[in-house]
Amino acid sequence: MKADSFSAQRELMLDTQLRARGIRDERVLAAMARVPRHEFVGEELRSQAYEDHPVPIGKGQTLSQPYIVAVMLQALALDGSERVLEIGAGSGYQSALLAEMARQVFSVERLPSLARSAEENLHRLGYQNVTVIAADGSRGLAEQAPFDAIIVAAAAPRVLPAWFAQLREGGRMVVPVGPAYAQKLLLVQKQNGQGLVTSLEKCRFVPLISNAEYPGEE
Known about the structure:
Number of domains: 1
CATH class: Alpha Beta
Number of strands: 9
Order of helices and strands: HHEEHEHEHEEHEEE
CATH architecture: 3-Layer(aba) Sandwich
Largest sheet: 7 strands, mixed
Strand order of the largest sheet: 5-4-3-6-7-8-9
CATH topology: Rossmann fold
Structural class: alpha/beta
């Protein structure tokens, strides 16, 4: 598929999937207009890259639906000065968007093969303010904390203590919380050491991969 076709698909995505559903943050829209989403999926699935659904990226993981990515980024309200922690790099697409919108990004990916793929994709496209770490994201990244913003791209049973502890006072975190089959997307703002929680959207993410089984299941 030709590059101009991908550009047309990207513009259609912006108009019909994002602006039409209430995405108004111009920094989010500009980043999603610049980042070539098709570069973060396999060659055989590139024709689906800009469609209104998740796209498989291997190892049972997916590249999230564009609208959900935009909702999460809009909720973080980034101004470009932030240090951001991303839990779940996947193939690196959201990491690239964060790199466009924040000063520095640290992305933790549990699956080493995906971490390598994300790093390669980001390097190929010239992003230099993202560090990808292959590790258990449930622990956050204490050695680089605190963070101005945290974004979690996998379903968690609750807001994990390590994440909240590593969030700077006044910082914002977006995380899908709930059982493995369905969650709510939450915005958590840290105020006076407490979490102010706002529910954003119903959603369905792949479960967080940790050293333990998914702890939300009873």
